[in-house]
Design a protein that fits this description.
With 273 residues, the protein is α/β, with parallel strands linked by helices. 42% of the residues lie in helices and 18% in strands. The protein folds into 2 domains: 201 residues, Rossmann fold (3-Layer(aba) Sandwich), CATH 3.40.50; 61 residues, no CATH class. Helix 4 links the parallel strand 2 and strand 3.
Amino acid sequence: MENLLKQETHFAFGKNWLDYAEKIDEPKIAQAVSDLKRLNQEERLDGKSFLDIGCGSGLHALAALRLGAASVACVDIDADSVAATKKTLAKFAPDAPANVNVESVFEMRPETHGTYDVVYSWGVLHHTGDMCRAIRQAASLVKKDGVFIIALYRKTPFCGMWRVIKKRYSNAKPSRQQKMMQSFLTLKHGLQRLRGVDIQGEIANYSKMRGMNYYNDVHDWLGGYPYESISPDECCALFETLGFKLVHSNIGKMPMDRGLLGSGCDEFRFMRR
């Protein structure tokens, strides 16, 4: 458990988010706002408290503020991610009611940290080293009738292989070794081109996916260690035991390669009964 609290045992996502934070602009913010509305199934967050677990660049905490959230709390185990979030909020929402801290989800308790109307954690808890425990901990921070918006990697037959690749990538030297491993993804592009996919167009329009950047996401995917995954049925069953009901989901189809070239995130919106 002690190791799970140390950033050194996790991939350095924060450096990637510091780089991405420099690219945030109004179109990316607008896309993030649109996506948060889609995930939350509500147009506004007026008067609601919002907790972002694994805040990364701070883009989605900013989106919550743009939607009228009364207060925003942001936590991340990586000090660079916290720095990126503070930088984003200082630039685009300098007077916002936001509290940003370096903290692990495993340290958070409702008795000391309070509970929130909306708890948001997109693509984070499967990197904690103990995904199910992290989910339980995060779920305890949701108010009665509050919602938990979460995205987790879909389980595929090749998750074990990717766990090995990700561990190697996260331990590789940042320059040459990691760039060589990034070139592996050209195989995926080659296969997609054979199927008639416009790869260059997809990369150019990548910001339409939650306001993200393609090249930052490639680094994020390859380096995402620790790495776990979960099937939609397993996820819903776990939340059922925690007193939540599923109210919305966005579950992708299993890719034709069955996950050989990677896995995507399934999105869920659960409400506490």
